[in-house]
Amino acid sequence: MKKLTSIIALAMSVATTDMVNAQSTQKGKQQNPYTLVYDGAITKNEKGKVNIHPVKYKLNGIDIAANVYTPANYNASKKYPAVAVAHPNGGIKEQTAGLYAQRLAEAGYVTIAADAAYQGASGGAPRHTDKPASRIEDIHGMADFVTQYAGVDANRLGVLGICGGGGYTLKAAQSDKRFKAVATLSMFNSGEVRRNGFQNSQLNTIQERLKQASDARAQEAAGGKMIYAGVASITDEEIAKTSTDLYREGFEYYYRTHAHPNSTFLYTMSSLFDLMTWDATTNMDLINQPLLMIAGSKADTKYMTDEAFPKATNAKSKELFLIDEATHIQTYWKPEYVSQAVNKLLKFYQTNL
């Protein structure tokens, strides 16, 4: 754990050599015209099939980059249910969020996966800002856009949040009743982890890290250099020595097998100023929509789903679904686990939308 802490706690410069090496393993995927890096991704729009539509829209003055997926034989004069998909921490719309958006579109849903403001291909500065209020607003913004999209039935809107996007989805759904069905996959409570450390491993340094965040904000306010936390690059040796499945497999996913130049583990140190006083599970009783929470049975993040689920005391209905043998990151890409998650999501949305 000490090795892991030393890796993820240090502020590091923007990725160079390792990112290039990671991208070199992606030659086939990176040739995708939409830069999608998941298996089975759309390579061209064809009549009668699921199509992808890159779009941009404004959210509080910031340009948001998103992909809208439309079902096969899509007819804008008809009305379709829709699902907004919120991506993981460090993730972007071209990775697992896009995979799930495409799979749901294959089942007849109009879906949207957007890059968070300050991240990916979306605008906003400083780059790599990762603050709860912004990530929650991103989810409201997807609802704003997709409910106005031609052919979408605004009264049949669902939401799916993956990893950190799952934590932010729980919070967004508390107030946004446009979402008629709320689902999370491998939910990650960003506030709890930034505050307490992963698996409560940094409880003794909370005040020290709050001081670091405060100092970083002061430096920014004074016009000084931006300070970043997280990991910008990592060696194969460091990956192999990482003790937790989440981070070891996450490094492999984001920097090797599914690398994308817009995806990074970096976030501004000053983001901790907001993250460490926030928690995804507060006010869970405000969720009155049907709720489905999915996690891998072997995920070392499962404890976060276990903490959140009982607090949804007013959900119209709720279910905790475990994917047997799956780890957190494996739910992002491994075909048999993705299929289990998608099949469960489809039953959930078909029942509630």
Descriptors:
single chain; 353 residues; eight-stranded mixed beta sheet; two-stranded antiparallel sheet; 14 helices
Give your account of this protein's structure.
By secondary structure, this protein is of the alpha/beta class. The protein has 14 helices and 10 strands. The protein has helices at residues 2-9, 17-24, 27-30, 96-106, 132-146, 164-175, 190-196, 206-221, 236-241, 245-257, 272-275, 302-308, 330-333, 335-352, and strands at 51-59, 62-70, 80-86, 110-114, 152-162, 179-185, 228-229, 267-268, 291-296, 318-323. The strands form 2 sheets. An 8-stranded mixed β-sheet has the order 1-2-4-3-5-6-9-10, with helices on both faces. A two-stranded antiparallel ribbon has the order 7-8. It is globular and about 55 Å long.
Strand content: 15-25%
Let me know the number of strands: 10
Main sheet: strand order? 1-2-4-3-5-6-9-10
Distance between the termini: 43 Å
- Report mean pLDDT, rounded to a whole number: 92
Instruction: Provide a count of the helices.
Output: 14
Structural class: alpha/beta
Task: Spell the H/E element sequence.
Answer: HHHEEEHEHEHEHHEHHEHEHEHH
Low-pLDDT residue intervals, each spanning 5 or more residues: 1-25
The general outline is globular
Helix coverage percent of residues?
25-40%
Radius of gyration: 19 Å
What does the main sheet amount to?
8 strands, mixed
Topology:
Blueprint: H1 2-9, H2 17-24, H3 27-30, E1 51-59, E2 62-70, E3 80-86, H4 96-106, E4 110-114, H5 132-146, E5 152-162, H6 164-175, E6 179-185, H7 190-196, H8 206-221, E7 228-229, H9 236-241, H10 245-257, E8 267-268, H11 272-275, E9 291-296, H12 302-308, E10 318-323, H13 330-333, H14 335-352
